[in-house]
């Protein structure tokens, strides 16, 4: 009997760590009535990182907190806030990490300059290689 | 190109390889910490006003924190298993004289109150944060999380995850620092 109970306990599905029972906020899964506003909200949501399923955007994530963040973004857009202001608001809370769109500034400029520099180096290499072949 | 520079350049791929190898090994040795710390530490509490989870009680407002008293703000939920783990430690902190305010994340008042009935209730006040709005405004990325808020209403420290018995001393020290 003991063995049966132990086996049942092992085979029973493990309880999930955290699973709210409440229904999600309406705006986390419902589009805004104004298509222009919804498009602006969508564009922003695709570039905001989910803090639970790190690596997914809040537009893609099914995490409850991502749903709440989508609802928050839609509410703020519907209230007339600019997408970049909402992005700044989120960055103030979660750090630059939360945004998928790095700005060009003192820290991130190598990110933007690297492709141009590599292209230039490649161009120079190609030029010297072609020159050598001609002679 | 002279023969000497070519000889030096030949070593470059090996150097590059060793750099990559070093990166891989540091990644293997150092455990990856994926927790997202709130950037609001050092800033005043964002404005919020949450209805009380307890019946007929005044709402939990951010403005009420600027009364000279250091407090803990604990974000919890009845559906959160690690939250059960930290309840004895919260009771211990309360016994040590620390005021603790609760923020109930994505919960119904009935569920929150049943949870506190089962696990003990260390909270002075509890705000009902149905849509996680206050939680997001504070920069919290999950439950449970605990914040030390000083007498001016400024967030001074953050603890991510359940408060384990070995964390109590650190929390008490953070509360003392915030005096």
UniProtKB/TrEMBL annotation, chain B:
Domain of life: Bacteria
Regions crossing the membrane: 6-29
A single GO BP: cytochrome complex assembly
Molecular-function GO term, any one: disulfide oxidoreductase activity
Keyword flag rRNA processing: no
Subcellular location: Cell envelope
Domain Thioredoxin: from-to ranges: 39-179
UniProt-listed PROSITE patterns: THIOREDOXIN_1, THIOREDOXIN_2
Principal localisation: other
Alphabetized InterPro entries for the sequence: Periplasmic_diS_OxRdtase_DsbE (IPR004799), Redoxin (IPR013740), Thioredoxin-like_sf (IPR036249), Thioredoxin_CS (IPR017937), Thioredoxin_domain (IPR013766), Thioredoxin_ResA/DsbE_sf (IPR050553)
UniProt keyword terms in alphabetical order: Cytochrome c-type biogenesis, Disulfide bond, Membrane, Redox-active center, Transmembrane, Transmembrane helix
Gene3D superfamilies: Glutaredoxin (3.40.30.10)
GO cellular component, one term: outer membrane-bounded periplasmic space
Family indicated by similarity: Belongs to the thioredoxin family. DsbE subfamily.
Record protein name field: DsbE family thiol:disulfide interchange protein
